[in-house]
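User: Last request for today: this protein with flavin-adenine dinucleotide, please.
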Amino acid sequence: MPDPNSAQEATPSVQPPFESWGRYPSYNAHLLPLHWQSDFAAVVPTLRDSALPVGMGRSYGDSCLLKDGNLLVTTGMNRLLSFDPATGLLTAEAGITLAQILDFAVPRGFFLPVTPGTKYVTLGGAIANDIHGKNHHVAGTFGCHVTQFELVRSDGTRRLCSPTENPDWFAATIGGLGITGFIPWATLRLKPIVSRSIDYEGIQFHGVDEFLDLTTQSQNIEYTVSWIDCASTGRNFARGVFMQGDHSPTPSPLTPSPQPKLVFPFEAPGFALNHTTVSLFNTAFFHKQIHQRVVSLQDYEPFFYPLDKVLHWNRMYGKRGLLQFQYVIPWEHAREGTIAILREVANSGLASFLAVLKAFGDVPSPGMMSFPKPGITLALDFPIKPGKSFPLFERLADMTLEFGGRLYPAKDAAMTASQFQAFYPQWQQFARYKDPLLTSSFWERVTGEPLFR
Ligand SMILES: Cc1cc2nc3c(=O)[nH]c(=O)nc-3n(C[C@H](O)[C@H](O)[C@H](O)COP(=O)(O)OP(=O)(O)OC[C@H]3O[C@@H](n4cnc5c(N)ncnc54)[C@H](O)[C@@H]3O)c2cc1C
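Assistant: Here's the final one, the structure of the complex with flavin-adenine dinucleotide:
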């Protein structure tokens, strides 16, 4: 077998201070970089405070932060341990990134079973948030494709977890926010591909009903996602572009991806992203697709990871950072809830630069605390504007609750404890699996649970 670790250098590394992607909140923490074959149980006696394993810090809020605690940075634990091309089963240390897995797998004719909108997340981070991708309606969440992992607790206990072995620990740890124990390695089932290309189709739509019609028509297409203009009102309200695609069945060279070269060079001033600039961007983006329907063959990089082209693009939001808001509202109230929330956003004068709308399917999530459920999910981000962003966020979170939905912890820095506990009524059952040493600023915020120290 070729050396599985030969294509692993160029992923951007984590630099102190450790920030989440939203850059809010910002906390001091003690960074403990782990290395190949680091043993969590052996690290524990050296810790005097609580700890949290972290990956690439691509969560937006505070679920990957621990104020004044120990962050066990896993990105040095990034070895591929085995790969079986007959089954697609890949075993790797949990700090490996999806970018590193792709560098290894694509030239060998394999792809990730589920991928988020950035490839710079770790295997451990993908499991702990049970992430979803554009194929949720057919493939379910990332955890659906994890066949096993090891879970190490701070008391030194080790468990092999799979759907059949220690299934309760498996369910608690997938989407378990990093606090049920440390995952040193995991096995993931990759899927075969014969080309880097995606058979792409982009379709303009006007309003939520047209989006829903397109969603119904695209049930057999593997990847679907929509960009939506949430700054416009009136005739342009909820216009967008529905983007769909399948892996191309026509064989073509499976070359590795080039490494990104562009870096967002500076901290943008706080006023750079405002309602006017975002409205201008949205109009340009909507009309960039000149025809109502566009068909093309697209490389998987721009299809899945358009934002990864510019490293550190989060600096565009300035020093104060950004707030993400992502809900899922079940089908019963998905249409009215989505229209009401989009109206609230459009009327707020606080423009969301990136707004992504998608339907979740009914493949059950394996995690006790997994975010996805059948319905519509909308992800928005807002530059933090004092006195404005948080009140809007609070209104939107309350509306989500009224419509029977919930928010995504991986994207959150602002939901209140009572909102979280209403979104995830199973949280107390989940809390029984929490490791006494591990916690996060998110967990503390939404449960009021005191730190270990
Ligand atoms: C541009 C962008 C697009 C995104 N698109 C999507 C999307 O489409 N779908 C989606 O679901 N998410 C999306 N996300 C969110 C992202 O996928 C998740 O937040 C992911 O979990 C981040 O992984 P990470 O390696 O950066 O982990 P971190 O953010 O560092 O940590 C995330 C969680 O994993 C835990 N953890 C990490 N390693 C371990 C370990 N070894 N053992 C136990 N716990 C561990 C941490 O404690 C923490 O709770 C996006 C993020 C960005 C920045």
